[in-house]
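Bug: token stream looks shifted between consecutive jobs. Job 1:
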Amino acid sequence: MKKRQIFAAATVALFLGSPFTVKGEEETSQRILEGVYLENVNLSGMTQEEAAQAADRRMEEIAGYQIQLWMDDQSVGIPASELGVSGDNQKTISQAAAIGQAGNVIKRYKVRKDLEEEPIQLALTNQADKQKVQTALETYCLPLNREVTDYGLTREGKGFQITNGQRGVTLDMEKSVSLVADYLENQWQDGNGSLELAVDITEPRGSQEELARVKNILGQGSTDYSSSSAARATNIKNGTSTLNGKVLYPGDSISVCSAMMPFTEENGYELAPSYANGTTVETFGGGICQVSTTLYLAVIRAELEVTERHNHSMIVNYVKPAMDAAIAEGSKDFQFTNNLDAPIYIEGYAAGGSLSFAIYGEEYRPENRKVTFESEILETIDPTVELTADTELGFGVTQMTQGPHIGYRSVLWKVVTENGEEVSREEVNNSNYMMSPTKYKVGVKTDNPEASSAMYSAIASNDLNKVYEAAQKY
């Protein structure tokens, strides 16, 4: 009877293919059953230590795969290792080692037979380091951010060429970090991966159809700068170039001063005369007011909405009173809005002493309607003379330091006619220009006290004739 029991035990043991071991040996040398996989890694016959090494090799392989991250129509491939992919699979390996090792002989035998029919595939555990994910996105994806580009126009010959717009793309860092981490840990299986990041999209304004409506000249303006110095001419050309080619969509506004700034040497401007508080001074960008003024003429003739406009402190000689538009950084601006239902295109040209602007768009006014602008002078203020003593000049010698400017009070009228008949007359602006006196320095250098006294009296009278009389007398 005893021999039969021993034989039976040995027979079952051989049938199951398990060696006789003592308890301590089983814990250290127990092999994982045939048919157990960690994803596609076959763990059959491995010890836990060998399985852990196999899992580490698999994680190294996985870390080398590329994850293609998409931002709209742009993408960049980043190695999984740079996204901080790692894996602690010790618990899974312990689970693999425990399969078919518990229960009675029959139960373990059944598990082995089941594995022959259908292997068990355990999942690798991936972890993603969110800080490494963010660092990788900052390095590779932030440079893919793209400003929106609206549909635009370029002038070609007598027509226009429409340029296509492009969507603006901005990475949403916080959402994208979470998306990448979740993808790596819960969705990505094997091989190279691909994921759409969270981005903010800005659609371009305009379209081929909308810009095709820009074909008519709505308003024009031109002035002459042929008498300008070379520096002033440079400023006019430079300022004009900043405005040429701009497209304003319906509802868009533009600050002409901001468009031409900064008025610096680095931005192409030179020192030239300009007005400041009733005097003429040298400033970088002197002459740019002729640019804003010429554009103003085109804008009002196109009947666009002017939201800010200022006259000069003193009268200018290139347009009639009330037809100017002065600008000065921080104090004066010329701004207008495209109040039409179609885009407009600004064309500016400065060459050969002639400056011109044209506003293109879709003509919306009937052919029998005409608009003109009339400058009316309400008051003229003649310049005075202002004399100052100069102790370095010879007695009675005069030097003009500032030329005269006549003062004006004026108004600009918008006159609308239909079929040649005036139907409306509207005040556009009311402009006042300072009178600027003719200024002279008068020499008072003399050793004769009487002559000196007489000349100072003449200077105090601001009368050049009395200066001449004193000079002849002494």
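Job 2, same session, no restart:
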Amino acid sequence: MIKNISISNYKSIVKQDIDLGRVNVFIGENGSGKSNVLEAVAMLAASKCDELTTEKLFNRGVRVTKPSLTFNSFLKHKLKKKSIIELENLDGTKIKSVFINDNPDDIYSKWIDEENLAFQNTFLKLTLKHFKSQKDLQIDDFDDFERFLSNKYLPSVNRNIFTDLYGENVLDYVIYNINSNALRGISSESKREYLGIFGEGLDVLLSTFSDEQLEELMSYNFISWLEEIKLDGNDLLKYKGHKLGRSNSNLYFTDRFMKRNNKLFSAENANEGALHILFYLALFISEKTPKFFAIDNIETALNPKLCRDLIASIVKLSSSHDKQVLITTHNPAVLDGINLFDENQKLFVVKRADDGQTIVEPIKFKPSLQDSKFKLSELWMRGYLGGLSNSNF
């Protein structure tokens, strides 16, 4: 599990160190920099998999912009052309990226991670030294061999080596920001297995569930009408008029309130709240989804009570399925699903300082506040936590 994130010179973040729990919720005004925290981690994860192209970054949930806009350019700060991101695991091991870009005005230019280059150079020297020491090994031209290692072998070796060093949890990190059309199978923009960052592939993921996993998913009674989940693997039901054919999802539901011969309908026609809830439950229950990931704007399409209950369930699921998550929200009800007296659950308020830079502050409660008459949602809306707009309307 990741215990600390350190970010320097990335978008609106000048320098921030953030100590994490298992479930981490970030609140704050629109544009305060919450998503920048999530994206900084995605940049590092992409780098260690040699995925710093525009398309690969997009598929991790990064809002790609000109490199020149990725570095701080605040009026009273000296311009620096390096972004530094570092993660620390519970066991003290650290993984670091130092990003530079030779074409800061070209949005399609590929980033360079200086830490990767240093690592690869060391690995290359040790590899060549090893082969040269093997007296019975016949290599005619070590210069050609070095070029082979540099151009064809090292770029693909990154993920394997970093997986051995840090595990899959960091390298698989992705930011989910789901929308209803993707969940319904009507749109498909990202290309990830098993779940796309916008919600694509929910039916595919559910098709991999065991009976025990489906039973666990159905045990969360968030959707009052849901009787059963069905998967039409051959997509034959569309020929019986169950969907218009715009959707490529094979996911169907039955409504327990409707008559037996008229209660089956497709994801194309399901209400968006039900699809969002199913997505989040599947995300945490499945062993095929990342161990460490982010959810941007988790409250989308959910009513306040559902937000509260979902977060409380996520806390349980993250522990039982060994997941760690970063969550952003604008809905106060989300806060009522977390318990700040549990060190595995953390709340952060994100705001902009007078000079414009993003500040991330942890919210900590004293034991004396445990019996406070105000809920966390009320404390936020009353202005005690910060992170609210200064609008006078």
